[in-house]
Amino acid sequence: MSNLVVFGANGATGHVIVEEALRAGHTVTAAVRDPNTFPAPVKAVQADIRDHESVRTAVTGHDAVISAIGPSGRKAEGLYSAAARTFVDAGINRLVALSSSGARSDDPNHPLWYRVVARTLMSELYGDMRLMEDIVRDSALDWTFVRPARIVDEPPTGDYRVLDGVNPKGGTKIPRVDLARFVVAAVSDKRWSYTCPTIAQ
């Protein structure tokens, strides 16, 4: 089992990732802006993704980093690319980070309406995700970018498809727990190193 630190642990998906990592037997630390807001029994440490020193302190002694960070709205405002620079600077070895199936704007398996939305209303958000991926790719990190379809709060089924870098045809959603379980498993699954597993039902 691994010693993991989860960034974005106070978010909806990050919180489920913490729960699933604990269920899988890992030791987990939640890296959040205010440790007092994160419930026990998980150890929580203070970290701001734009503050290199706090992130460097938070990741020390951990085997891998999981990033579930995300903005509160449709604008990234440089959050993903800032996180990428911070993680590269922090001296970590293994990173599994959430991106989105929309990060590939030319994905042939996306319906036309989605491609239009990705290039217009969501262009700033997905553009920053792509920049995050590019920054990390150019580093020495062992990375995986998990690109989920639309995340839904439905019961997990374990019945989903995963392709590297392309959305499974007809796939439009993924239950949050199924996504979290895949993210946790990907930490130690070498077949997903240096890939962009795109996951959808």
Low-pLDDT parts are none
Termini separation? 28 Å
The global form is: globular
Strand element count: 10
- Mean pLDDT equals 94
Q: What does this entry look like structurally?
A:
The protein has 201 residues and is an alpha/beta fold. The chain has one domain (3-200): Rossmann fold (3-Layer(aba) Sandwich), CATH 3.40.50.720. 32% of the residues lie in helices and 22% in strands. It has 6 helices and 10 strands. The protein has an 8-stranded mixed β-sheet, with helices on both faces. Helix 1 (12-23) crosses helix 6. The two termini are 28 Å apart. The model has no long low-confidence stretch (mean pLDDT 94).
Brief synopsis:
The protein is of the alpha/beta class and 201 residues long. It has helices at residues 12-23, 52-59, 79-89, 112-119, 123-137, 176-186, and strands at residues 3-7, 27-32, 43-46, 64-67, 94-98, 142-148, 150-152, 161-164, 173-175, 197-200. It has a single domain (3-200), classed as NAD(P)-binding Rossmann-like Domain (Rossmann fold), CATH 3.40.50.
Notable traits:
201 residues, alpha/beta, Rossmann fold, eight-stranded mixed β-sheet
Question: What is the topology?
Answer:
Layout lengths: L2 E5 L4 H12 L3 E6 L10 E4 L5 H8 L4 E4 L11 H11 L4 E5 L13 H8 L3 H15 L4 E7 L1 E3 L8 E4 L8 E3 H11 L10 E4 L1
Parallel strand pairs: 1-2, 1-4, 2-3, 4-5, 5-6, 6-10, 7-9
Antiparallel strand pairs: 8-10
Helix pairs in contact: 1-6, 3-5
